[in-house]
Design a protein that fits this description.
Blueprint (H helix, E strand, L loop, with lengths): L2 H8 L1 E4 L5 H21 L17 H5 L4 H10 L5 E7 L27 E7 L11 E2 L12 H7 L1 E2 L7 E5 L4 E2 L11 E7 L9 H4 L9 H6 L10 H4 L14
Antiparallel strand pairs: 1-6, 2-8, 3-6, 3-8, 4-5, 4-7
């Protein structure tokens, strides 16, 4: 069974050695610094330990959107011209779990036969049974109903993989984080992608001066550069090659 067919049947695939050890180390250093900073600023939030808008927190996390393989998988598993809905982290503290430890999906919409969102996890540490590798319920992306705890526990599998491996999954796949039984953090970055006519969680083009940022056109597209809304009639009547919302978006 090829990986695309496996994905359609099960709702996920693991791409081995998706990122190099050196890049993973740089990403992990930036993420740990961001977690430390956020723990001081946002000490009592419900998702403490999760870093939002990671592309703003380090050069490596921004440059990761330039990775050609990301666009390749998005083109095949979601659509052309996909954008980022949310770019955040998934880190398990020592001897603990996190906000993702509940059974959940990353997309509330169920449209039979139509995928609106795609999830992506890049493991910055090995995912093991000891440190809380993610549990998924294979095939559950095809169901509009929430599984019972018993059904999930009986049928779910725990995904284990190496540092640098990537997990792509249908955002309607029911899953949950495991429990980290070790004395070390387990880190990952996660991105939820959506179709270009949908809206991102934050206004990324406003956060970043994308026109003057040294990024590839694909990375800028991920951050919504080609689907910006006009803010006045002058924007609306710009020549076609200067329009904020580009033609041909799926």
């Amino acid at each position: 069974m090829n990986e695309w067919k496996f994905f359609e049947e099960n709702g996920y695939i693991i791409s081995k050695q998706f990122e190099t050890p050196a890049v993973c180390a740089s990403l992990k250093n930036e993420l740990e610094a961001a977690i430390a900073e956020d723990s001081r600023k946002f000490s009592s939030v419900f998702d403490k330990g999760m870093v939002h808008n990671c592309f703003l927190r380090g050069d490596s996390m921004l440059k990761h959107l330039d990775k050609n393989e990301l666009r390749f998988y998005l083109d095949n598993l979601l659509c052309k011209n996909a954008i980022v809905y949310a770019y955040q982290s998934s880190s398990l503290p020592p001897n603990s779990d996190n906000y993702g430890a509940r059974i959940h999906v990353d997309c509330p919409r169920f449209i039979e036969g139509y995928r609106t969102n795609l999830g992506y996890i890049l493991a910055l540490d090995d995912f093991t049974t000891d440190n809380g590798g993610t549990f998924v319920l294979p095939g559950s992306h095809k169901s509009p109903t929430f599984p019972s705890d018993q059904e999930f526990d009986e049928r779910a599998i725990q995904l284990t993989c190496n540092k640098g491996d990537a997990i792509f999954f249908d955002a309607r796949l029911f899953h949950k984080a495991g429990f980290n039984h070790t004395n070390e953090w387990r880190h990952a970055i996660t991105i939820n992608f959506c179709r270009p006519f949908m809206r991102s969680r934050f206004d990324f083009p406003k956060m970043l001066d994308l026109q003057n940022t040294a990024m590839s056109s694909s990375a800028k597209k991920f951050l919504g550069n080609d689907v910006r809304m006009p803010t006045n009639l002058d924007d609306f009547y710009l020549p076609e090659n200067e329009r904020l919302y580009k033609a041909g978006q799926e």
